[in-house]
Amino acid sequence: MYEYFKGKLVFKAPTHVVIEVGGIGYYVHISLTTFSQIKDQEDCKLFISFQVREDSQTLFGFATEAERHLFHHLISVSGIGPNTGRMMLSSITPEEIQQAIVAGQVNVIQKIKGIGPKTAQRVILELQDKLKKQGPDALIPLVASKPSSAEEALTALVMLGFPKQQAEKALQVITTTDPDLTVEQLIKAALKRL
Description:
The chain is an alpha+beta fold. The protein is built from nine helices and five strands. The chain has a five-stranded mixed β-barrel with strand order 1-2-3-5-4. Strand 1 (4-12) and strand 2 form a beta hairpin. Helix 7 packs across helix 9. The longest helix has 18 residues, at 117-134. Residues 141-145 have low confidence and may be disordered.
């Protein structure tokens, strides 16, 4: 529902902030990782995760899109709710969590407050499988570089329901013959091949 809020930080604490956007103050829960990145700022941009439960509607904010991406992976695991996910991101850095999951280090995940041995194993089992399918950088996308036209076209084709490997092969053939096509041209050319 919300992608990000960009506004003035009216109040800052290690666990939450109040960010004023268009004259409205939003109470947003944050992790210590995010707090450390925004504590010296007056204006900031927070990537938002809007969590709706039977008894609450809660906003969680993150300084980077990568941290929000990891948060969504963590809360997809059975037994980990948004507050536990935030606790995990506050205890160790997103990079350390990612490395522990990739390496299967149950003891690192288990050290986090509120995470028992069974939950730590479940996190690694469920997210490690996703990493094996998507590659080592699946949890934390590279947000610094703009995706190429071929990458954007591939994402669009996968969202349209085409298998990733087939779409990749079609795009490789197209880009080797004509590397300067726009995203739209690549998608149209790939659709003719698929």
